[in-house]
Amino acid sequence: MSEPESNDKPLNLTIYVWRQKDAKDAGGLVKYDLKGVSQHASFLEMLDILNEQLVGKGEEPVAFDHDCREGICGMCSLMINGRPHGGFPATTTCQVHMRHFKDGETIYIEPWRAGAFPVVRDLVVDRAAFDKITQAGGYITANCGSAQDANAILVPKDDADRAMSAAACIGCGACVAACPNSSAMLYTAAKLAHMHNLPQGQPERMKRTLAMVDAMDAAGFGNCTNHYECEAACPKEITREVIAMMNRDYAKAALSYREPTAKSDGAG
Amino acid sequence: MANESDFRLDARIPTGPIAEKWSKAKFEMKLVNPANKRKYKVIVVGSGLAGGAAAATLAELGYDVACFCFQDSPRRAHSIAAQGGINAAKNYQNDGDSVFRLFYDTVKGGDFRAREANVHRLAEVSVNIIDQATAMGVPFAREYGGTLANRSFGGAQVSRTFYARGQTGQQLLLGVYAGLSRQIAAGKVKMFNRTEMLDLVVVDGRAQGIVVRDLVTGKIESHAAHAVLLATGGYGNVFFLSTNAMGSNVTATYRAYKRGAGFGNPCYTQIHPTCIPVSGDYQSKLTLMSESLRNDGRVWAPKDKADVAKASSDPASIPDDKRDYYLERKYPAFGNLCPRDIASRAAKEACDDGRGVGPGGRGVYLDFRDAIKRDGEAKIREKYGNLFDMYERITGENPYQKPMRIYPAVHYAMGGLWVDYHLQSNIPGLFVLGEANFSDHGANRLGASALMQGLADGYFVIPFTLGNYLAGVPAASLASTGAAAFTDAEAAVKGRINRLMSVNGKRSVESFHKELGHIMWEDCGMARSKESLEHALKAIPELRERFWKDVTVLGGKDTFNQSLEKAGRVADFLEFGELLCRDALEREESAGGHFRVEHQTPDGEAKRDDEKFCHTAVWEYQGDDKAPVRHVEPLVFENVKLATRSYK
Questions:
Q1: What is the pTM of this model?
Q2: Going along B335-428, which residue ranges are E strands?
Q3: If exposure means fewest CB atoms within 10 Å of the residue's CB, which of A78, B361, B428, B643 is most exposed?
Q4: Which domains are assigned to chain A?
Q5: A266 to chain B, minimum CA–CA distance in Å?
């Protein structure tokens, strides 16, 4: 990461963008020259400028996912020079600004690379596998209308803060893209740590851990081999401690948790 | 096409004292037998707080639900971006709050242009929302003893706002998404991601389905249901630059309007006072800095024009007696926490006066110097660290050292499709929830009330009122998607796409959107006049005509094509913007976010005209070549006395 440029001089850039028509197309990098980009523009605004130029020339614009453009919806992605979200601390691609690039710089832009995230088009990937993991158990079973007064559940502030830190995950998939194994452990463990630091998450804790880890494996994500690239790439600074918590719970659950049967229920 | 005699606005407000209306209505509503619920198919468009909560809750009740969102996952709906918090009349702080006070503040904050009965219900169920969200594991901020923490927000003198750091919206949405995921896994909700609604299908006078486009394959498809719920958010992006997500659009509600649903108060748009100013013409969106910052930040502009250059480069060098803390000066009772419409206009006034700071003179300061001196930087960092970091990422300036530069930006739509007390539009079977409807915020929404309304509608209102409707609809009456109404609508959708793709002009969709936004902001932004609105009403149709002659949409229609998606949305904005300006022109008064320069008090405050405009304006579509008809729903205030709103 470079220090911001100190002057307001517009940048001339060479960018290589991954273009791929659809999931079946082989795809490849295409070179574009871009002149006069304001340092105050965001990275995605730089792509907007490129797209306007392409449309002006009658070429199809580059497809990329984005929505809120303020770092919270998790829709934007992009490998920028080989780093998810460009590798700036605690920053999503939409919040990266061009002042971090130098005049004359060459920038490579690619989609997330992971078997479980197939490319839809250009820089857009399909992250439905994350939804599947959540659907396997990333919830607390509490039908609407069944809740007691909120202050009837006391949560120590430290626990609430820990839960909040884990819950900050925006589901962007940078952790998967950064991992040499395309593991989704940080994503899965963050969801589990959010719920398991809270009293509300305890009743389903064992069952949930097993189900979500199984779903993660089934979706085709790899395993964790302790590179911690995920932690470095996470724009919400989720730490690998959540993975440790998940591993402890998983070991415990795998060894001790069994679905209740009619016999073992006990009650007449 | 509905003719005027078909158009009925019956608000169905229950009789009786305000505090008993909702209980009474709930008891009087018909129920659907639990065993029959699975025979009813319900379409929910949108997966934010309102739509996601509705889809999950209706599935919990046993209905057969299909939910649609244009994003790649329901978790990304724009509710996610709300920062500051959610109001609830819990009175956990023992500081004088009550359901009636939240009701009162909301009616007053909305400048007496909301329907009392709806607002009271909203205040009543607000307490249940906090309970439900907590049960779902939403990690709200806590005190050391383990109870929930609160903070204060604009327009209120009590601390009733619950929050989860600076990302209350995401945390509430993740709670909703969790519940929705459980129902998807259980097979009770069929979820359609990356699918956009492009038309509403009305059969025999009832909403019975929608036409959608699969955004990945381009396939056009119809879905039939016993009822259709729109929870598709607001239309702020008609201004091009807004704090809304890039994908937020008016298409679903506007298409419903063209099928006969009344559009309520489109001119009521909220301009949020604390956003990061525009930095250049490449700008694609504006970023909000949470209103919660006004708890500790003090807003100022230099007193003298002569100090502007110095204040812009070195604000710390301007001594206190040369600073105009204009909100504290003008509104001593509420100070920096006055409501959004008022704070926004005051910022504009300071800049119009030539005292704005930063590029183009369009900015004022939100200064934390005194709070940092009082509480220490660590405390301020704990409270607002993520917002300060975001500000620095965007502007390259450190707000711990230099005050934030802020300026108002379009943020929220109070207007939306007209609904009755049951959240049903004037088309039977079409229900509208959350920001997409017009109902609860009048002419101005108070901070931390959008999340409240979305969840109130989705969790606690629609589960009752939809059942009442479905109880009167035979389960066997599900329409066939082969029926003429569906095939006609599909043909219209395809025709429109073909038309967009065959213009083959020279200009990008984006450039037209930008030009429309410029007209809207200049002529129908923070200040509106007869002259400016008449200008807009001339300029917008001209722009629309140029769009259909000169737009270029590249790529195919049967592929993932973001230009085509955007073209359809901008085409609708080009029609809707005209409706918005027309409504603004007809409403010859100032109220909340709608400020007509002809109608102001001698000291520049909004001046309502209760005699002529104490009503909701509801627009009925008449055809592309005809002016829409304006209907009214009179507003009756029985519990909050109509008064001039004062925060002094």
A1: 0.97
A2: 364-367, 404-413, 416-417
A3: B643
A4: 11-121 (3.10.20.30), 127-256 (1.10.1060.10)
A5: 27
